[in-house]
Amino acid sequence: MESVRPGAPAIEHPFTGKSPLFRVRDVPVYGDAILAPMDGYSEWPYRSLCAELGSAMSYTEFVKAKNIIRAYEHMAPRLRYDEGERPIVFQLWSEEPDELVKAALMVRDKSPDIIDVNMGCPAKSVAHIGGGVGLMKTPLKIARIFRRLSIALDVPITGKIRLGWESCRNYSLVARILEENGAALIAVHARTKEQGYGGEADWDAIAEIKSMVKIPVIGNGDVRTIADIDRMKSHTGCDAVMIGRAAIGNPWIFSRLEREQVPPEEVRRMMHLHLERSMEFHGPHKGLVLFRKHALRYLKLQRLPRATRTRIFTQETPEGFLSLIDEVFAGLDEKSRETA
Length: 340
Known about the structure:
9-stranded parallel β-sheet; two-stranded antiparallel ribbon; alpha/beta; TIM Barrel; Non-ribosomal Peptide Synthetase Peptidyl Carrier Protein, Chain A; 2 domains
């Protein structure tokens, strides 16, 4: 693994220097917990922090293949990554095989380790035109896509799926098709399209897929704590787990730390670093605005008074925002000393 960039979190990456736990074809993977690709969250500022803390693979946000073809220079920033994030996975989506192949060939010049096809997004704007989980309704099209991508590219091709639709839970068929047509790994969000992000994830379905295929399988769904990582692996036999919503505001889960184990000073430092990268990536104003949703999650366990939260989230300058954050954590340190 490459060394991390300057300003990396102080908490140690849990798998640095160890042997790979599994391989995606010829790409070694050194850990068993991975930040899930999430639109609006797994962009470079946050994804890079999670990688430095132990996320074993870096998936970009999903990128529409058609947009890459039509406006590659405009879309290229969404594919930014640090060398320390490797293995880096570019995730693409489209309902059209030709678009996926053309876009994959175009992004190949950015040297991803892996290219992944999104077959799991449940959003109506994606699924109802045949993309994301909508692809799972067309197994033969999936076969064509993976056959063509596997022939056209020299990097491993992987797929992220759901269980299908309530009317057609065809995950086992799709898993077989993926392996038979060149997929090097399958990630499984163990919910149907209709479940979205609610209800209970079906870990038995992940175990079923793992028992059927010889390629690595990543499980996704209802992993909220460190104990859940080991429970899912034990229950399903999967090679690694993906963590989505539970990782927002809690990148330390990839260092095998529960949120309550992280001292306030570390949270404060991480917020500074995350905001710095957000402003570097998006520019000062947009970077601050987009960081606020992360700040809310970082601070969720601090039980701040409403007036304090309002002051924080109405600040319009990075300097004012950071000053208030420091004030909040200074108050937390003082309370900690009083109760010691």
